TrEMBL record:
The gene is prfC. It is found in: Cytoplasm. PROSITE patterns: G_TR_1, G_TR_2. The keyword GTP-binding applies. It holds the Pfam family RF3_C. It comes from the Bacteria. Belongs to the TRAFAC class translation factor GTPase superfamily. Classic translation factor GTPase family. PrfC subfamily. It comes from Leptolyngbya iicbica LK. This is Peptide chain release factor 3.
Length: 536
């Protein structure tokens, strides 16, 4: 029966020592900087340089496409793997702002934990809120890191309050700052009850200090300005008396967020964060499937595709499928079942997905991500497995915010146009909708980021030889109707919205803004609207 060569104990050990997370943040909060510092702790110093290089690359969309062409592999999504304290950490990189697309959301489907990175001067920002909603859908444990404490920031208590009030997420401050900006003196680590002091060097360049003092050490009063120290003590007393208790189960259920303050640029507070993260984060967890929950330590290998990345070079039209390993052991060249087609697939040419190019991979365990070059076989959400047949829960369609008719001005290219649009939709590059009015036959592209439109047009031109035109539509919100057409008919006439069909023929309402959604919901209490499509 058993096809895997891994012993139960080895598998359990490998799962035990894995942690996997994605960073959710708004552009400029410091994700690249934090990623770089985290990698340094893993000893992957050369990788850190790669992170910086990527930052320079992502500035213009056209650069991105050029890069894709030259490298022939994804640079918009990578998985950075590093070891720290004997733990293998997989950091699933979500693309930056110009690259914002459904891929960013889908990556969260493969993550076990999320780190919400905020600029302490700004607090919650739009992109972070959106990504948070996806984490919430999956009940992911969320760690919060307030960055840039070396710069003027908002009051820490106010920042925590914002998370509690606006996201409905309880917080537990693992460390607490002393001052901020010019007055930033460091943090108090509640785990070890120690001060970690932040020092600036004489020449104004900033570096993380190494002074650590125990609580009660009288030297603290010499090193920290009295007013600041008293303010700190008052705040600490307050959070210790009134704040939530540290509750691992609540963290794992995504209801309580451990909070950290620091400065990624000066590498201050990063190690404190990483140490606590390893202790509190969720290990690769069981996943829901058609066979019930599958334990990561189940002997048979299984995994699912959460993202496809097309090779932009028309000469090599292969696709890299990103697969999250969910159970058992992955081995190079193993033959697995492909649940959707029922076919056998050999998993050859697996790749480790580092920022720097391709590296061949021999084995992988639950929590890891592998890249496979399998042209045409895989679609988003596909399950592969050995042993008993199973399928993991699909990845939902996320609520698009940008809509445009895609026009093909050249009727003789109809066939290529249709083929291209169908294939790009199947691959998950963009969502396609159609007007409910049969006389309007142009497909409507529905995306979460502008980049998706550009990629679709670029690829239709390059791979299918069709030049297209976009005609933007004035909507910014989509809602799926629970109960489908029947429920919609029952609701009667709706105002301030347009009805379209998604790729499965289900009704979707498009609105100009959230306010209009509220109006329709108010006028039709029986109508239930959903932000994401039901999983198919
Ligand atoms: P990303 O867009 O989230 O990847 O943000 P980056 O890592 O590129 O950082 C955006 C800007 O903020 C850069 O100029 C960084 O040098 C700066 N930055 C990042 N972390 C800190 C910090 O802790 N303190 C200060 N003062 N600047 C920071």
């Amino acid at each position: 029966m058993a096809t895997s060569t891994v012993s139960e104990t080895v598998l359990a050990e490998e799962v035990e020592k894995r942690r996997n997370f994605a960073i959710i943040s708004h552009p400029d909060a410091g994700k690249t900087t934090l990623t770089e510092k985290l990698l340094l702790y893993g000893g992957a110093i050369h990788e850190a340089g790669a992170v910086k290089a990527r930052r320079a690359q992502r500035h213009a969309t056209s650069d991105w496409m050029e890069m894709e062409q030259q490298r022939g592999i994804s640079i918009t999504s990578t998985v950075l793997q590093f070891d720290y304290r004997d733990v293998r950490i997989n950091l699933l990189d979500t693309p930056g702002h110009q690259d914002f697309s459904e891929d960013t959301y889908r990556t969260l489907a493969a993550a076990d934990n999320a780190v919400m990175l905020e600029d302490a001067a700004k607090g919650l920002e739009p992109q972070t809120r959106k990504l948070f909603e996806v984490c919430r859908m999956r009940s992911l444990p969320i760690f919060t890191f307030f960055n840039k404490m070396d710069r003027p920031a908002r009051e820490p208590l106010e920042l925590l309050d914002e998370i509690e009030q606006e996201l409905g997420l309880a917080t537990y401050a693992v460390n607490w700052p002393i001052g901020m900006g010019e007055q930033f003196r460091g943090v108090f680590d509640r785990r070890k009850r120690q001060f970690h002091l932040f020092e600036r060097t004489a020449h104004g360049s900033k570096a993380a200090g190494k002074t650590v003092l125990d609580l009660g050490d009288p030297r603290i009063e010499d090193l920290v300005d009295q007013d600041l120290y008293y303010q700190f003590k008052e705040e600490l007393e307050m959070i210790e008396e009134l704040g939530a208790e540290l509750d691992l189960a609540a963290i794992h259920a995504g209801q309580l967020s451990p909070v950290f303050f620091g400065s990624a640029m000066t590498n201050f507070g990063v190690q404190l964060f990483l140490d606590a993260f390893l202790d509190y984060a969720l290990k690769p967890a069981p996943r829901n499937s058609t066979q019930g929950e599958i334990e990561p330590t189940a002997e048979d290998f299984s995994g699912f595709v959460f993202k496809l990345q097309a090779n932009m070079d028309p000469k090599h039209r292969d696709r890299v499928a990103f697969i999250r390993v969910c159970s058992g052991k992955f081995e190079k060249d193993m033959v697995v079942n492909h649940a959707r087609s029922g076919k056998n697939v050999r998993l050859s040419h697996p790749q480790k997905l580092f920022a720097q190019g391709r590296e061949s991979l021999e084995e992988a365990y639950p929590g890891d991500v592998i890249g496979l070059n399998n042209p045409g076989v895989f679609a988003i959400g596909d399950t592969i497995y050995q042993g008993q047949k199973l399928e993991y829960e699909g990845i939902p369609c996320f609520s698009p915010e940008l809509f445009a008719y895609l026009k093909n001005p050249n009727p003789s290219k109809f066939k290529q146009f249709h083929k291209g649009v169908t294939e790009l939709r199947e691959e998950g590059a963009v969502q396609i909708m159609f007007s409910a009015d049969e006389s309007k036959r142009d497909p409507i592209l529905a995306a979460v980021g502008q980049l998706q439109f550009e990629v679709v047009q670029f690829r239709l031109q390059n791979e299918y030889n069709v030049e297209t035109r976009l005609e933007p539509l004035p909507y910014s919100v989509a809602r799926w109707v629970e109960g489908g057409w029947e429920a919609l008919d029952k609701a009667g006439r709706l105002f301030n919205t347009t009805t379209v069909k998604d790729s499965w023929g289900r009704p979707v309402l498009l609105f100009r803004n959230e306010w209009n959604v509220g109006q329709v919901e108010g006028d039709h209490p029986g109508l239930k609207l959903r932000k994401t499509a039901p999983v198919v």
